Amino acid sequence: MTINRRKFESGNFEVKNTDRWNHPVALVLRKNTSLAYRVDELVKCVKLSEEGIRGMLQIFVELGWVIHKQPYWAWNKAVKKQ
After folding, report:
1. Cis peptide, bond prior to residue 71, ω within 30 of zero
2. Please, which residues have CB within 8 angstroms of residue 14's CB and are 6 or more apart in sequence?
3. Residue 22 vs residues 10, 28, 67: alpha-carbon distances, Å
4. pLDDT for the residue 17
5. How far apart are CA 63 and CA 10, in angstroms?
6. Is 14 exposed, middle or buried (0-12, 13-18, 19+ CB in 10 A)?
7. Is 70 left (phi over 0), alpha (psi -120 to 50) or beta?
8. Rounded distance, CA 64 to CA 20, Å?
9. Domains along the chain with CATH numbers
10. At residue 19, does pLDDT exceed 80?
11. Residue 39 to residue 51: CA distance in whole angstroms
């Protein structure tokens, strides 16, 4: 959905999934720490776009929450509840 420039510049708009710890991708990976997933598998699990999932996975890698070994992604078991 588009917004007008005034709302954009003021930051007066709703942002979804600001709680990264409870993001659908984080929930799937965290609940299944014995598994590693490909992006296409995560798309089916959480029903989000591939681009959105890849972007969130990159953020999780930077936070140290997720480990990536091409083409798989897995929750870093060393990460405890935030």
Report:
1. yes
2. none
3. 27, 10, 18
4. 58
5. 28
6. exposed
7. beta
8. 13
9. 18-75 (1.10.10.10)
10. yes
11. 9
| DSSP element (H, E) containing 20 | none
Cα distances (angstroms) measured from residue 8 to each of 1, 5, 19, 62:
12, 5, 21, 27
SS3 at position 59: helix
The pLDDT value given to residue 33 = 94
d(CA 41, CA 76): 18
Q: Give me the amino acid identity at 7.
A: K
Average pLDDT of span 73-78: 95
**Among all chains, which residue has been given the structure tokens 């990536």?**
68
